[in-house]
Amino acid sequence: MTRIQLTAIDHRAQPTLATRVAGIARRAWHAYWDRRARQATVEILRSLDSRTLRDIGLSRSEIESAVYGRCGERRRRYEEGWR
């Protein structure tokens, strides 16, 4: 009985300059819209009255930390995947 060993050859091409530039542009575009969405969220929350904020469990001093805080820092936070 003969044993044959096959090795996988990675045929993926190295990323070209165009694909790298496209990746950078895509990340910049997503970062821009993420920043805009966070800014809009802060503006909307600031426009609410204190009673409505209390109903959703926030105080005025917590708006920025709820939107811009790091993941895991708070139980309630801005959800990036809401779109």
Q: Brief overview, please?
A:
The protein has 3 helices and no strands.
Describe the structure.
With 83 residues, this protein is mainly alpha-helical. The chain has a domain at 34-71. The chain has helices spanning 17-47, 50-56, 63-68. The longest helix has 31 residues, at 17-47. The model has no long low-confidence stretch (mean pLDDT 83).
Report the sheet-strand fraction.
Answer: under 5%
- Binned, the helix content reads 40-55%
The average pLDDT score comes to: 83
Shape: elongated
Main structural class: mainly alpha
Order of helices and strands: HHH
> Could you tell me the number of beta strands?
0
> Uncertain segments of ≥5 residues (pLDDT<50)?
none
The radius of gyration computed from the alpha-carbon positions, rounded to a whole number of angstroms, is 23 Å
The major beta sheet can be summarized as: none
End-to-end separation: 58 Å
Number of alpha- plus pi-helical segments: 3
